[in-house]
Amino acid sequence: MKPALLRGALPGKAMSGLYLLGVLNAFKAATMVAFAGGLAAASLELIHGQNASGNLLLAAVAAVLRGLAVWAVAVLAQRIALGAKEALRAELVERWMDDGGAEPAAAVLATRGLDALDGYYTQFLPALVSAATVPLILGLRILSADWVSALIVLLTVPLIPLFMALIGWHIQQKVSEASGALLRLSHHLAELARGLPVLIGVGRAAEQRAALRELGQEYRSRTMLTLRTAFLSALALELAATLSVAVVAVFIGVRLVYGQLGLETGLLVLILVADCYLPLREVGTAFHASDDGREAMRRARLVLDAERGRGVLSTEQSHPGGGVQVSGLSVHYPQRRGAAISELNLSVEPGTICAVSGPSGCGKSTLLAALAGQLTSNQAELSGTVSGIDPDRLSWLSQQPGSTETTVAAELQLWGAEQPTVLLDAVGLSGREGQHPASLSPGQLRRLALARVLARVESGAQVVLLDEPTAHVDAESARWIEQAVLSLRSRATVLLASHDRRLLALADQHLELELTK
Ligand SMILES: Nc1ncnc2c1ncn2[C@@H]1O[C@H](COP(=O)(O)OP(=O)(O)OP(=O)(O)O)[C@@H](O)[C@H]1O
Question: Measuring from atom 30 of ligand 1, which residue has the nearest CA?
Fold first, then answer.
């Protein structure tokens, strides 16, 4: 079983690496015992003018072996870190692609965010294993030599985890805030990139600069605060360990003066006792240095463990092509007071177009995203029943359609188009097969997105969800999009969110949403 601190941190394969770390640390502790024994005995021999070469050699060999063990631990930790990061990154990227790139948090974590895990794997985990093995073995050796010193160690060692816990408790909130600031910055950037054409169009792009500067500043100051606490905590732990060693040294000194303790035993204990506290101090320092890593891990788990929205809704896969029925659908965003959608009932006949309209913020996009299964349980709480939507036979056009391929034709083929040319003709993009999607105007990009929807319908999609397909497009593109939407009638059941009167006029049925509080 994995300890709670490691749960979710290590793929199964890496657990065996962790056991090997334990063995290497036990070996390191054995070399430390041999080194201390050799050095103490050699010192005594030198004081008495005897030949100390045997014990000096023992100490030297032990020191070299200890160095090798430390090196092996570092290499192994590096390998565990790489493997675990790779696995987590692959999961996040897969999730991100499943979401159609709609979850910026997954993208940030998979790139910059997961690098914060380096400190966690290469410092914290080895330090943790070392703290679990080394003090125990050294403590047993001290106990066998001098029980008084062992007792002092036993009484003072808990001070270090205690300090650690106190400091950790103090800064946990701050670390979470720093990570939240990074996410806010990334959300803001993603929103900005999506809305840039519109912002430039209405001449409001410059205002964003100040908001970005403010967010960047907030992230910087919160990160500095985390770093400062990590340095201070190292200092506090160092102090606790040094005072504890001093107490042991005083007891040894007094007993040496009164002849109650042999010099060799005193030296052995003094050499070992400092190393007894070292692993615990290292855990403390590494623990705070890997705060960002643990937070990144927590957030990665949140993204990965989040259920898809429709998974939360109860669904009935009634007769395919039998239209869409929604009953009692409610959507609550955690950050929003009141439901974005409340107890919605809707029935759309197969092969018809249902227009969803209403003032800005009434929940049109939310409704489509919920039906498309795009709202994760982290983003929103859903309840109600939906029937007639088979995720494999669904085509959803979000407000920010992206593209992944390098040519228009490849983009359509990716979505199942057998004859991209015919589809491009249908949306007025004839002859653009070889063009890079990024070179299209915003209106043309929307038309390409509509062509993708047509491709999906050709290859069997029965339900189409279109979120503001004519938003921010020129009049010519809007006409082509209207044509494409019309061509969907009787081939698929279409739900269409829009403010565009001409587009709304094409619908067979209207759902007017109202603003909720
Ligand atoms: N991720 C979110 N977190 C919190 N609240 C949200 C989130 N997404 C949307 N909302 C809120 O839910 C409500 C419905 O938003 P939605 O985008 O669905 O409206 P809409 O009708 O599509 O608006 P528009 O016509 O401007 O696109 C709004 O009050 C919005 O602020």
Answer: 361
Q: Which of 289, 298, 286, 269 has the alpha carbon at shortest distance from 130? A: 286
Tokens matching residue 261: 């303790």
Q: Three-state SS string across 314-342, please?
A: EEECCCCCCCEEEEEEEEECCCCCCCCEE
- Does residue 149's CB lie within 6 angstroms of at least one atom of ligand 1? no
Q: Is the CB of 309 under 6 A from ligand 1?
A: no
Least confident of 19-33, 400-414, 466-480: 400-414
- Report the complex ipTM: 0.96
Domain 4-305 is found in CATH 1.10.455.10: no
User: What is the pLDDT confidence band of residue 2, given thresholds at 50, 70 and 90?
Assistant: very low
Answer yes or no: are the C-beta atoms of 461 and 394 closer than 8 Å. yes
pLDDT at 4 over 50: no
Q: Is the pLDDT of residue 72 over 90?
A: yes
Best residue among 183, 335, 336 to mutate for probing ligand 1's pocket (most ligand atoms within 8 Å of CB) is: 336
**Stretch(es) of the chain classified as CATH 1.20.1560.10:** 4-305
d(CA 286, CA 307): 33
